[in-house]
Design a protein that fits this description.
By secondary structure, this protein is of the alpha/beta class. It has a single domain, classed as Rossmann fold. Helix content is 55%, strand content 12%. The chain is built from eight helices and five strands, in the order βαβααβααβααβα. A five-stranded parallel β-sheet has the order 2-3-1-4-5, with helices on both faces. Helix 2 runs antiparallel to helix 3 and helix 3 runs parallel beside helix 5. Bound molecules: P1-(5'-adenosyl)P5-(5'-thymidyl)pentaphosphate (T5A). The site of P1-(5'-adenosyl)P5-(5'-thymidyl)pentaphosphate (T5A) has 27 residues, from helix 1, helix 4, helix 6 and helix 8.
Length: 212
């Protein structure tokens, strides 16, 4: 039985990183073997590309941005995701290819067919079993980001209209795709974690016996 590949998505400040860690802890406490990873990043070369992609003030033309996200993803899939799934580990990734479709496609306005082509090269067709899309109002997400005290990165400096397009893109995607589930991320972290566990348990019953 193959272990699931679960990806967390959503706008800035939706709480993805914290919820990835919580789900991993829960699965590990049940005796599962879990790999936690992220994009951009997840590999040494991917983390270096991440530094360039997120550095404030660096001029990155949209197609260059698209190709850099694709470049880090191909390393991530080849060096981390596929080997982990082959070992039978559950993979939890903080972002994956859907981020490119939403940020570079819906929000930046790049051609969707160009995005699909570069994604196909980068992933070799590997799709997650489940996209968990954490949905939050961009103003709430931004205020969480400000309260965290972390300096905003290059993409977090985009205006609110950009973030509204991101949110709308995710909501539309969730409505149209069976392998995506929208989770209300405006509640407390405990409530969001409980909702995620309900979704995961209902959507992927086989994770109860995978990765052991
Ligand atoms: N990108 C990425 C693309 O444009 N294309 C791509 O293909 C890919 C892969 C990645 C950036 O790159 C873009 C998208 C992003 O802009 P990142 O640092 O990984 O950069 O950015 P995010 O994934 O957006 O990370 P954030 O840190 O902004 O948000 P998270 O992970 O959603 O949230 P988290 O868990 O770090 O929490 C943020 C703060 O909110 C609080 C936390 O304590 C923390 O302080 N918080 C809550 N507060 C109240 N209630 C809750 N329920 C809360 N949950 C979290």
């Amino acid at each position: 039985m193959t272990a699931p590949f679960i990806v967390f998505e959503g706008p800035e400040g939706a709480g993805k990183s914290g919820q990835v860690a919580r789900l991993a802890e829960r699965l590990r406490s049940d005796g599962r073997s879990v790999v936690v990873t992220r994009e951009p990043g997840g590999t040494p070369i991917g983390e270096r590309i991440r530094d360039h992609l997120l550095r404030p003030g660096l001029e990155v033309p949209p197609v260059t941005e698209l190709l850099l996200f694709g470049a880090q993803r191909s390393a991530h899939v080849e060096l981390v995701v596929r080997p982990a799934l082959a070992r039978g580990d559950i993979v939890l990734s903080d972002r994956y290819a859907l981020s490119t479709l939403i940020y570079q496609g819906v929000a930046r306005g790049l051609d969707v067919e160009m995005i699909r082509s570069t994604t196909a090269i980068a992933t070799g067709g590997l799709e997650p079993d489940l996209y968990l899309i954490l949905d939050v109002d961009p103003e709430v997400g931004r205020s969480r980001q400000v309260s965290s005290g972390a300096a905003p990165d290059r993409i977090e400096r985009e205006d609110l209209a950009f973030m509204e397009r991101v949110r709308a893109g995710y909501r539309d995607y969730a409505a149209a795709n069976a392998h995506a589930e929208l989770v209300d991320a405006s509640a407390t972290p405990d409530t969001v974690a409980a909702a995620i566990l309900t979704v995961v348990t209902a959507r992927i019953p086989e994770w109860g016996s995978s990765g052991q």
